[in-house]
Every structure is written in C-alpha cells, then in structure tokens.
Automatic annotation (TrEMBL):
Gene expressing this chain: Tpmt
Upper classification of the organism: Eukaryota, Metazoa, Chordata, Craniata, Vertebrata
Major subcellular location class: cytoplasm
Protein name per UniProt: thiopurine S-methyltransferase
Binding residue positions for S-adenosyl-L-methionine: 16-27, 56, 77, 121-122, 139
EC number: 2.1.1.67
GO molecular function, one term: thiopurine S-methyltransferase activity
Domain of life: Eukaryota
Amino acid sequence: EGAGSQKDRVVTEEEWLQKWEKGNIGFHKEQGHPLLQKYLDVLLNGRSGLRIFFPLCGKAVEMKWLADMGHSVVGVEVSEQALKEFFAEHNLPYCEEPVPEISGAKKLQSTSGNISLYCCSIYDLSSSIVGKFDGVWDRGALVAVNPCDRERYVSLMTTLMEKNSSYLLVTVSYDPNKHKGPPFYVPEFEIKSLFG
C-alpha cells in the first residue's frame, strides 16, 4: 500500500495560511537546520557569491545566514505573514513592490538587496521572473507540495537551475499509512524518477 494512502491528499493554500496565522508551524526551525550546516560545502562547492533559491521558504533563518556569507537569496512563500516575520525577527529593513508578471504577487526585498522573497504560489514563478540559481535548499518543499503536483514542481525546479547547480533535498522517512502528511513521504525511488 505504502504512499498510495497519500497520493490523493491535497493541502490548500488556505490551510497553509491558517497554519501561519495560528502559529501552527512546527516545521520552522529557530536554530537553523543542522543538515544545511553539515552539507553546506556540497551546496557551495567552493563557490562564492552564489544565487540560492529557497522554495516554500517560510521564515527560514538560513536565508539570513547565507546572505550574510555573501550569497544572494531568493525565496517564495504564499504566506505574507511568514515573510514579514522573517524580516522583523532579523531586524532587516525591506521594501515591498508588486511583481508585474504575476497578478497579486509581491516581492519583499531587503534594503541591502541580497534577499528577495516572493509572496505568491511557487507555480507562478519562472526563470524569466527570478532568473536561474546556482544552489537550491529544498527542506520541507518537495515533501510539502501535494503529491499530485510533484512532477510539476520538479519540472519547474529543473528550469530554475543553472547547469552546475547543487540541489540539497531533505526528505522524511516514516510509515505513510500512519501519518497523512504533510510532510509527505517521498520514497527514494520516486526522487530518482522525478529528478532523473
């Protein structure tokens, strides 16, 4: 049976917004993610001044951490509250502007210019809007997208990656019959088939 029990589960944008409103954000890590620290060298691969993408970024503290190292960070998140909390919690001044190509979307950009966070659906983004990236930190993104959207998500991510891009992916392992997700269970064979 396996992941079959999850394949039809859909979490709406509204439900994600409510999680932020209610502070039901157990997925947020205040101290940053130990796996990013552990595998940072793999992501950077000796390179400096990279463009790094955070899909479904929430208010991930690693965005500030990488920006402080001299990288340029771009994130996308449906919850404007999450993005505003990110800037507030790091005392970062920012400005807000509309994104002409995406109806209703906003871009919140740190005044220093090295952190740009898009408030919209990730599926509204394209490389013509955000450019391409040297690195992707996918922690809680692939496992959070609805299982029926995985292929669409991965094909979008592929179009956002430069040729020698590094993609760090964190997944979760558990018995999908016991939890309905998110985070959803994405077995290794499926990751291999998705990313080829």
